[in-house]
Specification:
heterodimer; A: alpha/beta; Rossmann fold; 4-stranded antiparallel β-sheet; 10 strands; globular; B: mainly alpha; two-stranded antiparallel sheet; 4 strands; about 75% helix
Amino acid sequence: MSDPILSLKNVHTHIEQHHILQGVSFDINPGGATILLGRNGAGKSTTLKTVMGLLPASNGSILFKGRGINKKKPYEIARMGMGFVPEDKAILATLTVEENFRLSMLNENEKSHENLEEVLDLFPALKKFWKTQAGLLSGGQKQMLAIARVLVCDHSLLLIDEPSKGLAPIVVEQLGESLIKIKDKTKVILVEQNFNLARQVGLDCFILDDGHVVYQGLMEELAKDKALMKNYLGI
Amino acid sequence: MNTSSTLALKNETKTVNFKKYLLRGCIAGLFLLPLVWMDLQTYLTLMVAGLSLGMLIFLIASGLTLIFGLMDVLNLAHAAFFAFGAYAGYSILNLLNPLGWVETGSFLQSIISLGLALLVAALVGGILGFITEKLVIKKVYGDHLMQILVTVGVSFVIVEILKIIWGVNDEVVPMPMGFSGSSIVFGVFIEHFRVVAIVIGLMVYAGLQLILKKTKIGIIVRAGVENQEIVQATGYNISLIFTLIFAAGAALAAVGGTMMGIFNQAVDPYMGDQFLIFALIVVIIGGMGSVTGSFVGAIIVGLAFNYFAYLAPKLALGVNFMIMAIILLIRPKGLFGKD
């Protein structure tokens, strides 16, 4: 068994007076996609933001590739090889599609341009809107751009927060296909409310409830456990 | 994006653009109106004077565009950066003058002495801005009331430091020989330093546009202003970027101060106050965060002030408030503000 790429031990996070994460612990192994599931307000997005350094952990330890990142700034964590796609189609709306990609290339070199070519093969629709202001794209295209722009860097871990939120079923289907291709190259931690999409992409999962991890296991096993699904996901 | 929504979006964009261009066309047309009351030579003389005043205002407004327009920091210490820059530039010219480089220098020596004065002013303004952002502004991002209170305080402190270094009295600024005097071209009276002000204003405008639109740092700045979280998570130190933008804004104010000091051939500790009002009007007319908006706004303010000063002197100061009110009634986000 290889060392975990990400390891959380007893992580607590407060947002103002609210105690959101109340001792989250898990290990994420390299390869494939791991899904974070849970109802609204369970602490899924807070977990991703805490890992990325955007919210400070008030207690506990977070190791990324064996190195502590609790005290690191988000830009330092990103430079260590962690990519983050926040929820709600996180793009830079006033920049063009091209500028969104250029921003993502921390070092514009031959390798990053090769990556860009590969990413555009994965999301060919974005090529047509190369010089278009990103804010003018449709919801699905914005989400594709939000994910695609993170892929131009060679990250070892991608945190993706609810990419299917607010998208039409046909777009979600396309998104699923893209995510499957992405997880074959880079480790993905995906927060997703759409269980079908999550099952299609992820092999294993964690369920968060009230700021605690209440289940960890394979997606297929979870899908068979109707009581657990009803209890924690309301499905 | 489906075809019908794309078409609807395009039509909506066309209507908005038509209104925007109509308003800009009307404003341009209005500036031909003074020709009814004056001959062409007077009109052109006032135009050169108005453009140069506009460019001097643009120099201070461009810094404010970065700090207030882009970063959304209500910086009332901008006038103090302007004054401090004016004194820094004055000191350099005063230092070079006894060497025969300024009031009695050649054209080349005039260019070098002006260049040095502007460079030192920009450096001093930049350092002042850097320190102010690190010590004070960093703690009040997103809180306009606190920004007003602390930047007024910073302004008092800077002006008092300025008085300790240079004294409380007005100082006479030597004009570089190469830019003093005037010429009459086709009956149009042109002061040489006004041409220099126009050239430097154009250079600053072109430089800012180039940096913001064409370079990676420009993309990072625009992205950072729009969404700090994404930019941080992409791998950029947003805190450092904001400090540098603030310092650049202060440096531009200081350059504007030096130019205004030479233009008026005098500096005083409170010289920034009257121009801060002009600069705020310009940033609001042009649209928050738009460098082109500030550039056009500064030209409108400069020209309107000069034409009214000739035709109806009592209205000259008030006319810019009137222009600002009219533009805001028609386009609340300013001429070049994003809809």
